[in-house]
Every structure is written in structure tokens, then in C-alpha cells.
């Protein structure tokens, strides 16, 4: 025989209904189902105890691991967010990265210390006009115009060959330096005053120094293709060195800009010497000058 239906307290539903009903209230045929529904509502009432609430939260089907933090955890105990790959590399730099950053810091510090003519109020501000005159002596425009004039006035084949290759070297220097400046895009020092002579769009960049590359290129070219006395050869070398130093003193460039400029200008002469223009490999150029 099936057992009578019981409520959550273990007593029969009929007894529960009899004990909870008022004596004077009328009982209809569906009264038992009404009291049964009332007892079910009472059994589903929220529990006031905190342990009961925690148990229900853990038994809830929507509770999943990681969906929300536990009640006892604080925001400081939350797991830290994952770092990006480049951030993890910054936290663990390599020896090469540390060395490069140290050299860059030394370069900036030394360039600022040597910028004694960067402004009129600097320690060597009175020498600034002389340094700017030296700056014009290494500019590309005077060298290009001077080479063209000498080439026009020359009346010997050997002289025209040398001057043609000097003009080729100057044009190659302008092209390669502008290309490297556009690729590297290193800004000029912050203490520099943009009062340079005849600047172009790429001249706002600092690496490498065009004056240093031109000084090294022209000095090596002159020492190899012109017959000069020893005092004049020494003066050519001193001019190239002082011109590179003046770029740092004026605040135009950093030390590494000038150092790489000297190296690149020295290597550019090797390119010019390898591609030397002569009446044999470039006859159209010399025929043009011979007609004039």
C-alpha cells in the first residue's frame, strides 16, 4: 500500500493541513491541495543561516569555476592579468639590450656635455659664429657648385675625370645619407637650434651626420687623387676632424651620429673607387665635356 504524501518535516500532509487550518474555516474538497501548496512554499523560503546560503550557492547549477570570485576572496587576491609578449621581454632584457641602452644613455649625456656652442648663452656661445661658418664649409651645396664650376673650367682630361668622379661621389653621398635618415628617423638633440643653412625635409633627422660623411669622403678623395704637400694634407685631415666635432659642439648631432658619419663617408669612397667613371666605362660623359 503506498505511503501517504509527506511534507518536508516528515509528517503527513493531512495532519499538517489540519494543524494549520483555522477551526471555523470551511473545508472544501480541494483544501488538501491548497495546504500542500502552502507547505511547499514554506519549504522553499530562503534560509537565514549563512552556511545554508553558501551551500545553496555551491549547489546551484549556474555556479561554475571561475565564473565569479568566492565570497571570502578580496580584489587584491585576484589572479594578475597576463602580460603581453613584449612586456615580458622588457621585464627580462637580454645582455645586448642592456648594453645598447647603456651606450645610448652615455651618448646622450656626452653629447649634451659637449654642446658648448648650442646657444648664445652657452659657455662657448661667443665661438658660435665661427662654428656656423665651419658648418657652411662642409655643406653639400657649396661643394656641388664648386665641383660643377671647376669641371666647367677644366681643360685637361685627367682633371675632368677626377672632378666628374668627385661630383658623382657628392651626389651619391646626398642620396645615401638622405635614405638612411629617412629610415632611422632619429631626432636631433633637444638643445639644438634649427638655424641651419639651407635645410631639406630629411634634415630634421640626426642620424647620420651628413657633414661628417661628406668630410670623410672628400678628405679621403683629395688625399688619394691630388698631389699636396704634407702641411696641406694635415690641414685636410684637421678640417674633417674639426668639422665633425663642431657638429656636436653646435648641438646639431649626437656623438654616435658623427662617429657613424665618419665611418660611412670612409666606406662611400670605396664605393666610388669601385665604380670609378672613366672614358672607357662612361664615354658619353666625357664626350659631352669635350664638345664644350
Which features would summarize this protein structure in a list?
membrane; transmembrane; mainly alpha; 292 residues; globular; 12 helices
How many helices? The count is 12
Quaternary assembly:
single chain
Radius of gyration: 44 Å
Biggest sheet character: none
Ranges with pLDDT <50 over ≥5 residues? 1-10, 12-30, 53-73
- Look at the helices and sheets and give the structural class: mainly alpha
Q: Report the portion of residues in β strands.
A: under 5%
Assign an overall shape: globular
Nearest-integer average pLDDT: 76
Total number of strands? 0
- Report the span from N to C terminus: 133 Å
GO molecular function: isoprenoid diphosphate phosphatase activity; lysophosphatidic acid phosphatase activity; phosphatidate phosphatase activity; sphingosine-1-phosphate phosphatase activity
GO biological process, one term: geranyl diphosphate metabolic process
Enzyme class: hydrolase
Main location: endoplasmic reticulum
Your description of this structure?
This protein is mostly helical and about 290 residues long. Helix content is about 60%, strand content about 0%. It has twelve helices and no strands. α1 (about 15-20) packs across α2 (about 30-45) and α9 runs antiparallel to α10.
Helix and strand layout, with pairings?
Layout: H1 13-20, H2 31-43, H3 50-59, H4 85-91, H5 95-114, H6 128-137, H7 140-153, H8 157-184, H9 210-225, H10 230-249, H11 255-274, H12 283-291
Helix pairs in contact: 1-2, 6-10, 7-8, 8-9, 8-11, 9-10, 9-11, 10-11
Domain Phosphatidic acid phosphatase type 2/haloperoxidase: 161-273
Transmembrane segments: 162-184, 221-246, 266-289
InterPro entries: PAP2/HPO (IPR000326), PAP2/HPO_sf (IPR036938)
Amino acid at each position: 500500500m503506498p505511503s501517504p504524501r509527506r511534507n518536508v518535516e516528515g509528517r503527513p500532509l493531512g495532519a499538517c493541513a489540519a494543524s494549520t487550518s483555522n477551526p471555523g474555516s470551511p473545508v472544501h474538497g480541494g483544501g488538501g491541495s491548497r495546504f500542500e501548496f502552502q507547505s511547499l512554499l514554506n519549504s522553499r523560503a530562503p534560509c537565514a543561516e549563512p552556511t545554508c546560503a553558501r551551500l545553496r550557492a555551491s549547489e546551484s547549477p549556474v555556479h561554475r569555476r571561475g565564473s565569479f570570485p568566492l565570497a571570502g576572496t578580496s580584489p587584491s587576491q585576484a589572479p594578475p592579468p597576463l602580460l603581453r609578449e613584449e612586456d615580458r621581454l622588457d621585464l627580462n632584457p637580454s645582455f645586448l639590450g642592456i648594453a645598447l641602452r647603456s651606450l645610448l644613455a652615455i651618448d646622450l649625456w656626452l653629447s649634451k656635455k659637449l654642446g658648448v656652442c648650442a646657444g648664445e648663452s652657452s659657455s662657448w656661445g661667443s665661438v658660435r659664429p665661427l662654428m656656423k661658418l665651419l658648418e657652411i664649409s662642409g655643406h653639400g651645396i657649396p661643394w656641388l657648385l664648386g665641383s660643377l664650376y671647376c669641371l666647367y673650367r677644366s681643360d685637361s682630361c685627367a682633371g675632368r675625370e677626377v672632378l666628374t668622379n668627385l661630383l658623382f661621389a657628392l651626389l651619391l653621398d646626398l642620396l645615401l645619407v638622405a635614405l638612411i635618415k629617412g629610415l632611422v628617423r632619429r631626432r636631433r638633440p633637444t638643445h639644438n637650434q634649427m638655424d641651419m643653412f639651407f635645410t631639406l625635409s630629411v634634415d630634421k633627422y640626426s642620424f647620420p651626420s651628413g657633414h661628417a660623411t661628406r668630410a670623410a669622403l672628400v678628405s679621403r678623395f683629395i688625399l688619394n687623387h691630388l698631389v699636396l704637400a704634407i702641411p696641406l694634407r694635415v690641414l685636410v685631415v684637421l678640417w674633417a676632424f674639426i668639422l665633425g666635432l663642431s657638429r656636436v659642439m653646435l648641438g646639431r648631432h649626437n656623438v654616435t651620429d658623427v662617429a657613424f658619419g665618419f665611418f660611412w663617408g670612409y666606406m662611400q669612397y670605396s664605393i666610388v673607387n669601385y665604380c670609378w667613371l672613366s672614358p672607357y666605362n662612361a664615354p658619353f660623359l666625357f664626350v659631352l665635356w669635350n664638345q664644350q
